[in-house]
Amino acid sequence: MIIAPSILSADFANLAADVKAVEEAGAKYLHIDIMDGHFVDNLTFGPNVVKALRPLSNLFFDCHLMVENPEKYLQDFAAAGADLVGVHIEATKHAHRVISKIHQLGMKSEIVLNPGTSIEFAKEVLPLVDSVLIMTVDPGFGGQAFLEETVSKIAEAEKYRKEHNLNYQIEVDGGINDQTIKTAKAAGATIAVAGSYVFSQNTPEEQIKKLIEASKQVEK
Ligand SMILES: O=C(CO)[C@@H](O)[C@H](O)COP(=O)(O)O
Ligand SMILES: [Fe+2]
Question: Which of 29, 53, 62, 93 has the fewest beta carbons closer than 10 A?
């Protein structure tokens, strides 16, 4: 399973050190939460932070856009060095166009679903995307509890992938710890985002190791 530490819970005054620490600990992805204060009730940062971190890291930059009309910012994230852009299906009227544009800009695409959004709503674009992100909390904040009722949706995304011979990754985001990562993997998740679990206790190295070990306990 790929572990994607979320810098939302990192030390913003020492971001470079935290990014280095997770890279050395064996993470392959860096999850970067972009919030605009409209789609969610929180503000974080924009492509300028992605640009500043890019020369410091070889991690795969997974940019989760919690913004209205994400199509406006795709060019900026591509120029900043994003590897993948995740857009909420609830945040755009033009999901198909947005995904095509992400690919034209040379990035991997991801469609993101809130806990209240069904897989049905995204089915037309599932054959197009590189990844599907199933939110396992309502977006906007770190440190929330994993919503067990989202597990059936992870399983549904995996079932649909197999039935239609598609090859998207299934990412989960929110409330991931050394227990919930097992539940998510058993249901079909292949990428696990973790923010507060990685950055708010012990060292990021210890926490990432625990996540990797926990996920290995589940056969896939
Ligand atoms: O997108 C989000 C929150 O909206 C996440 O990526 C959080 O950063 C996850 O934080 P934890 O639940 O792991 O603390
Ligand atoms: Fe996120």
Answer: 93
